[in-house]
Amino acid sequence: MSQFYTDKPLAKPDQPEAYKPADGLVDAANVALMLGQPLLLTGEAGTGKTQFAYYLAHELNQSEPLRFNTKSTSTAQELFYEFDVLKRYHDLQSGEALEKEQYVKYQALGKAIKEADCLDKRQVVLVDEVDKAPRDFPNNILNEIENWCFEVLETGKLFSIQDQEKQPILVLTSNSEKHLPDAFLRRCAYYHIPFPEKDKLREIVKARLPNFPEDKNLDEQLDLFFTLRDEGSLRKKPATAELLSWLVLLQNTPNALLKGNEWYLSALVKNREDLEVARDLLPA
Fold it and tell me: What's the whole-model pTM score?
């Protein structure tokens, strides 16, 4: 019999309706909505920046947000559309070239702007980890996010929103790995998501994991978690996301199979030096 876990992976507790935003985060979102500005969220990784966009879409009775995952090679154009140059070249060579529009694939913000006037509600667009992009990325979208327009250079088509009540709701997240340009920041509403206090974290856990068993003693687990965060010199402190993953493990593991405090460390601690510190901090 295999010694490894062979069932399907445990479900992640990421349902948007269970998200518990801080009051300040709701206020910042309302500022962005009232001013028609993007909402820029910062905070350590795992504190719920990305999930807030899903929560906001859910609260506004929408489907999931249109999402753009920023990479270190991302260009401003890719936020709006991509043009398949290679396929068009191949089609030209074979004599089967289509209209240029057929080679355009609209991306998150481009799709939201292009479709806005045809919809009866505003779309939420998530640009995740915008600080990963090259420095000129934020500067190159200043006009587009201020005026909600963009041009497909290859076809000459210009898309803009005529009804300002239908402009997208743009949520940007940043892990503060690099400073964003002041001109870009000036056009955004801003909120920094702090790491929640224990009472707030308990509220988050109960919302995300309503069936967490009483015999697993949630308060005791939270004490252990905060011991790792606050009393150790960890290079990468576990965040809310790691806490929820760990508690999912505890919730789904029979007490008879629990093997002391070290068995779950791979869900909480993410490098060798921190592992040694964590082992010294946890009770036997």
Answer: 0.89
